[in-house]
Amino acid sequence: MISNGHGEDEIAVRILKPLQQIDPVLSIMALPLVGVGQAYQCQGIPLLASGQNLPSGGFGGKDLLRDIQGGLLSLAGRQVWALKQWSTSGSVILAVGDVVPLLLAWMSGLAYAFVGTAKSEYWRTDGRMLWRFRASVYWPWERGLMAHARCCGVFPRDRTTTTHLQRWPIPVFDCGNPIMDDLELLKDVRPSQLPPGLKILLLPGSHAPEVYANWRLILLAIAGLIQDQQSYVFLGAIAPGIDLAPLQQILAEQRWLPVSAPVFVDNTSAYSQAHSHLLLVPKGFQDCLSVSEIVIAMAGTATEQAVGLGKPVITMPGLGPQFTRRFAMTQARLLGPSVSVLSDSQDLSTRVHRLQRQPKQQWMDNGQVRMGNAGAGKRIADCLQQHLL
Question: What dotted CATH number matches 191-371?
């Protein structure tokens, strides 16, 4: 198993769990190219090579030099060497992510399959005119790796991309997107547990220190919104492992006053300002998503999941390394009308009031089309058992 990102690691695990249920004696090793492979470690899956966290969090860009100074080249060398040594065992490889793990799988000389999480035909059909002149969102050399004789299966992230790749001799399967597995709206979480007001989910991301800069930008944006006479309940869903102290400090700077927290999720802290409340909720993403009506996000995977469950999302570009303007615009093309990108935080109030007036069913329909149904991990695992193992 080779994956290149925290979200990709999570997708890989969603495939490996049903695969292990199908074949309990199956020996699995993981090679996370980005980070320390926490998702694998939580499932007890051994790592082929130890990883490390880099300054960019795996997003490169303007932090590439800092990544190199932080040991990127030596890390890559250790990973390639470990894969070369392991490939003598005559096993098979599942690559998850973009062309990097796909290329490494091909270089191994072993049979392989590819779960393409990073690209979608929605980029091309919903994007700039230049994209539309390309035959595919995947470059010819990427399609060549997918059409190679040792490639036994390709699993795109959505049906539109799957259908398009069928134009070439690629063993492509329409199984869906595993990121929607084990994720559903919780019926036992009720808005009545919260203060009255429009419920808005805040997603500042999951990578420190970027999450703290994103949190500040989100709070500055909603500062104008809470001047309305309308009451709001902001649900700050904070990813596991994020230190809450800097977030609480920023809340104090923005004049949010601590108040008694409602009975909602363990370890929730509450704040108030004007007519509105804000809850800081660690490890409560699904609970917050279940009761929210609108999402304000500066996140990757969590935004996709929110759209998949039928929530309209407002995003705003940050300073990166992940959530830049380019990332935000690419994400909006990928997820379609469920996502709107703010060019000016002062437009937030207008966007929120506009979303309140629009029918909810359109968000449900678009989420279904763009992100698919749950159960993709099991479908991919069944297909791998049949064609690769």
Answer: 3.40.50.2000
